[in-house]
Amino acid sequence: MPGSPPPPTSPPPPSQLVTFPGRGRRFTTTSRVRYGDTDPSRRLRLDALARAVQDAGNDDVADAGFDPASPWLVRRTWVWVPTAWPVLGEELTIATFCAGLGARWGERRTTVRSVRGLAEVGAVWIHLGDDGRPARLPDDFVAVYGESTGGRRTSSRLHHPPPPPQAEVRPWPLRASDLDVYGHVNNTALWLPVEDEIARRALVPRLAEMEYRAPVEADDEVTLLADVVDGRDLRLWLVAGDEVRASAWLVS
Question: 117, 149, 181 — which closes off a domain?
């Protein structure tokens, strides 16, 4: 089945790549790469990958006996593709577990594997209380998900730099279909401008990271800023007014 060939070299794995320790809870499910998930080269898009990973995590929470509609806010997501991307028609095996905890957040590690493709994904999610503010993780949640962390603590800090003066600027119009139940642009939809930019530049990312600084609201006028560093790294910023709402870093 045709797909995007791997480059001569791939970037090294992220420093925060954590493997399942062999103990604790791990949830596995399956999916398939469908037409609505791919780019013209049949590669699984970043937004579709993020959606599949988010759905697996939501199913895991429900399977563990917790409310799947409980509010969580993603803070940071990274994707590493060491060999090849999954492509159209391939079945996906998605395995996910908790790799670290903080006082008000948790890190979920997910492996998405197809017959030839592999994507390793990590995401830090912040737990929200009824007032919409970060809240301590419930004891029963820690009891279920804590064992697989091995006591590892994870951080919710963000590290991306601000956009430089020479960054290219263009508008990024929002669509009603981008919005979630909170009236914000869903985190999976924020990968769409990333996909648009790599398509314009004919890039196939092997490493991608998204940081979410503040919600993108329905009535925001958003601009997309782009800058290429050292000919290989692509950095992107989604800005509303003078505020960076999200940023991405990609290595091809």
Answer: 149
Query: pTM to 2 decimals?
Result: 0.93
Residues 34 and 139 in one domain: yes
Q: Are residues 188 and 119 in the same domain?
A: no
pLDDT in tens, the chain (252 residues): 445 444 445 676 776 789 999 999 999 999 999 999 999 999 999 999 999 999 999 999 999 999 988 889 999 999 999 999 999 999 999 999 999 999 999 999 999 999 999 999 999 999 999 888 999 999 999 999 999 999 999 999 999 999 999 999 999 999 999 999 889 999 999 999 999 999 999 999 999 999 999 999 999 999 999 999 887 799 999 999 999 999 999 998
Strands ordered across the beta sheet of 118-127: 26-32, 91-101, 105-113, 118-127, 72-80, 207-212, 243-251, 233-240, 222-229, 168-171
Flag whether 61 is in a domain: yes
For residue 107, give its domain range: 26-149
Pairwise CA distance, residues 115 & 120, whole Å: 15
Query: In whole angstroms, what is the distance from residue 98 CA to residue 66 CA?
Result: 15
Residue 9, domain member (yes or no)? no
The SS3 call for residue 59 is helix
